[in-house]
TrEMBL record:
InterPro entries: AA_ABC_transptr_permease_3TM, ArtM/GltK/GlnP/TcyL/YhdX-like, MetI-like, MetI-like_sf. The chain crosses the membrane at residues 21-39, 83-111, 123-145, 183-203, 215-240, 260-279, 334-352, 358-383. The keyword Disulfide bond does not apply. This is Amino acid ABC transporter permease. It comes from the Bacteria. Its main location: membrane. One of its GO terms (cellular component) is ATP-binding cassette (ABC) transporter complex. One of its GO terms (biological process) is amino acid transport. It comes from Halomonas halmophila. Keywords: Amino-acid transport, Cell membrane, Membrane, Transmembrane, Transmembrane helix, Transport.
Length: 392
C-alpha cells in the first residue's frame, strides 16, 4: 500500500526548501522596510530644514562657464545641459584613454617577452615604475611639472605656423566642412561596409580552402584610399580656420586644453602598465607546443604571434582587460584635482555647490557611472564569448 506524499515529507515547516523560502522572504521584507525608513526619515529631515527635493533644478539656469564643451553651451544654459557637457567630457577622455592604454599595453606586454635584452628590460622598467606610482601623483606630474612649464601664448612653440603649443594648450586649425564634404563621408561609410564584407569573405574562404587573404593590408587600403580618392576628386571639400594671435591668446582654431592632455596621458600610461602584465601573462598561458608547431610549418614570427599566439591568449586577456577598462573609466573622476570639466567636476562639483541638491546630483552621478560600467562590461563579455575556444 502506497503512503501519501504528505505523510512522507512531514510538516511544511520541517521542509528545508520551504524554510529557506520563508527566511528569504522575511529578509527581503526587512530590507525593504529598512530602505523605506531611511527614505522617510531623509525626506522628513529635508522638509524640516526647508530643503527642497526633486529634479526641477535641472531646468534652472546654471550661470557658470565650462572651459571645454563638445556641444553648444553658455552661462545661460540649464543644469541639465551642464550634466550632458560633463558626461560627454567624461566619455571623451575615457574613450581616448582606453584606446591609447590598449595600444601601449599590448606593445609593452609583447616587448617584455622579446628576445632583445634591452627592449625587454626597458619594458619591465616601464611597468614597474608606472604601476607603482599613484595615479593622482602622475596626473599632477603631467599637469604641473610638464604642461604648466610650457611657454606663454606669445612665445608658443609652433609647427609650420599653423600648430601652436603653449601653457594654455595645443592650438590647431579647425576644419570647416563645405558642401562637397558629404561625398567623402558617404565614401567613408562605403569603405567601412566594404571592409566588413571583405573580412567575412576572407574568413569563409580560409575555412573552405585554407587560403588566407591579406585582410589587414587590403582593409587599410580601402578604408584610407577610397575616402581620400573622393576627397581629392571633389576639389576642396574642407576649409581650415587658422589660429591667429590676438592680444594675449589665440583666436580661431581648436584648442585642446592642458587638463585634457594631462589626464589622458596619466590614465593611458598608468593603465597600460597593468594591461602590459595582462598581455604578458596571456601570451605565456599559451602552450609552447603551439609556437613550436608554427615554426615546424615555417610560419614567420610575426604571423605566429598574430595568427596563433594572440588569438589563444585573448581568452585569458579579455576578462582582465575588462576590469582595467572599468578602472580607467572610474579613475577619470580624478580630473577634479586639475580642473578638467568632467561629470564629477562640473555636475557633482559646481552644480551641487550652487543648488544644494546633493542627494539628486550624487544619485544621478552614481547611476551614470554604473550604466557606463555595465555597458563596457556587456560589450567586453560579448567579445569574450566570441574569443572562447569552442569545443566540438
Amino acid at each position: 500500500m502506497q503512503r501519501s506524499s504528505t505523510s512522507e515529507r512531514g510538516p511544511l515547516w520541517r521542509d528545508p526548501a520551504v524554510r529557506a523560502l520563508v527566511i528569504q522572504a522575511i529578509l527581503l521584507l526587512a530590507l525593504l522596510g529598512f530602505v523605506a525608513m531611511i527614505v522617510t526619515n531623509t525626506l522628513s529631515n529635508l522638509e524640516a530644514r526647508g530643503i527642497t527635493t526633486g529634479f526641477g533644478f535641472l531646468q534652472e539656469r546654471a550661470g557658470f562657464s565650462i572651459p571645454q564643451t563638445l556641444i553648444e553651451y553658455s552661462g545661460d544654459s540649464s543644469y541639465a545641459r551642464t550634466f550632458v557637457v560633463g558626461l560627454l567630457n567624461t566619455l571623451l577622455v575615457s574613450a581616448m584613454g582606453i584606446v591609447a592604454a590598449t595600444v601601449i599595453g599590448f606593445a609593452v606586454g609583447i616587448a617584455r617577452l622579446s628576445n632583445n635584452w634591452l627592449m625587454a628590460k626597458l619594458a619591465a622598467v616601464y611597468v614597474e615604475i608606472f604601476r607603482n606610482i599613484p595615479l593622482l601623483v602622475q596626473i599632477l606630474f603631467w599637469y604641473f611639472a610638464v604642461l604648466r612649464a610650457l611657454p606663454s601664448p606669445n612665445q608658443s612653440l609652433s609647427l609650420f605656423e599653423a600648430i601652436f603649443l603653449n601653457v594654455r594648450g595645443l592650438v590647431v586649425p579647425a576644419p570647416e566642412p563645405l558642401p562637397g564634404f558629404s561625398a567623402t563621408l558617404w565614401a567613408l561609410l562605403l569603405a567601412v561596409v566594404a571592409v566588413v564584407a571583405l573580412t567575412i569573405y576572407a574568413r569563409r574562404l580560409q575555412t573552405r580552402t585554407g587560403k588566407a587573404l591579406p585582410v589587414f593590408r587590403l582593409g587599410a587600403l580601402i578604408l584610407i584610399g577610397l575616402p581620400l580618392l573622393v576627397f581629392m576628386l571633389t576639389g576642396q571639400p574642407l576649409a581650415w580656420e587658422m589660429p591667429e594671435m590676438a592680444g594675449f591668446n589665440f583666436q580661431g582654431g581648436v584648442t585642446v586644453i592642458p587638463e585634457l592632455v594631462a589626464l589622458w596621458l596619466a590614465l593611458s600610461i598608468y593603465t597600460a602598465s597593468f594591461i602590459a602584465e595582462i598581455v604578458r601573462s596571456g601570451i605565456q598561458s599559451v602552450p609552447k607546443g603551439q609556437t613550436e608547431a608554427a615554426k615546424a610549418i615555417s610560419l614567420p614570427g610575426d604571423v605566429t604571434l598574430r595568427k596563433v599566439v594572440i588569438p589563444q591568449a585573448m581568452r585569458v586577456i579579455v576578462p582582465q582587460l575588462t576590469s582595467q577598462y572599468l578602472n580607467l573609466t572610474k579613475n577619470s573622476s580624478l580630473a577634479t584635482a586639475i580642473g578638467y570639466p568632467d561629470l564629477v567636476a562640473v555636475f557633482a562639483g559646481t552644480a551641487l555647490n550652487q543648488t544644494g541638491q546633493a542627494i539628486e546630483i550624487v544619485a544621478i552621478t552614481m547611476a551614470v557611472y554604473l550604466v557606463i560600467s555595465l555597458v563596457v562590461s556587456a560589450l567586453m563579455n560579448l567579445y569574450n564569448a566570441r574569443t572562447l575556444l569552442k569545443e566540438r
